[in-house]
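Q: My labmate handed me this sequence with no annotations at all. I'd like to see what the chain might look like in three dimensions before we decide whether it's worth expressing. Could you predict it?
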Amino acid sequence: VSVQTAETDAGTHTQAGSLKGTVPYMSPEQAHGTADLDRRSDVYALGCLLYEILTLHAAFEGSGAPLLQRVREGDIPAVETRNAKRPPPPPLAELCTRAMALSPAERPATAREFGDALRAWLDGRAERERKHREAEALAAEGKEAARRYRETVAELGEAETAAEAQAAEFKPWQPLSEKRALLDVRRRVEHLGVDVARAFAAATRLLDGALLAEPDNKTAGAALADLWKGRLEDAEREGNRAEVAYAESMVRSYDDGRLAPWLAGEGSLELTSDPPGAEVLLSRFEDQDGVLVATDERSLGVTPVAAVSLPMGSYLCVLKKEGYREVRYPVQITRGRHWQGSVRFLTEAEIGEDFVHVPAGPFVYGEGKNTTTKELADFLIRR
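A: Here is what I predict for the chain of 383 residues:
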């Protein structure tokens, strides 16, 4: 079979000769001059068009006899890798490869079958896009509900503070008529507590709904992780260990890795002394039968000690310097806390045999929401 081509059209347009057709879109059997062509040759041409749509490149490039030979041999670059910047969806790549199979028997039997496969993918994509839009809309509502929840939590905190202030102004024996202001603020606290619960439920319902529509929706997942992060922070401030454990598990279930450093909670310790050059031994406190026991002692070198990374927990630093009494200095690393401490040494004569030196530092007292931290100066206490 001979093919006459004009060099000017580079083989990309319909050519006149023993064969008629556009060579880059011919099926191999058509390029061989086979007389009995069927619908599967048309399917091959559709595959060529799909190849070009997916890769932005023609399946066959070139001109003249070399182009025709490649068409006859089905010598094409794989559609999956033809354009590294534009990888095709796997179902469409598979459909294109089948449609351009060298053997007609391996192709879809008709253009209708090809079209049905293509339409099924398009319908699936349309459904995925619809679900994504639905999920994003629910996620936007959920984020707004989460914002209202945080605002209500702040209002509740202010109301609780006001209630405590009012309570301090009244005596138990005062008549009810004189306690009206206190009763009003306590009622507001009660109502806000209900509002907080409802706001949290609304936010989680909307965001969970977004994930139901699209399980991997990143907007909803991030919002839920942040929502539970706030609950975890509140629980840690209140010292509610059960709620801490639950909220932490929820953060981990929704987080995509963004909050991993925060969840790890690692903090650090910097320590100086007056005078400097003191040896520092660090131990970690562990609860053993209700008693904090210092374990795993290790040396941090001598002061000043640069920032040392420490997991969350309670620690004891023992500082020693010749000519001075050793100092026991407690450290608590809460989530992400950078502890900067300074220890002053006193001599035995300055302290006295029957006294203990308590070094300056932060002192935490109170319980739950009422915990307070203050910086205390050095003091001596009798044994």
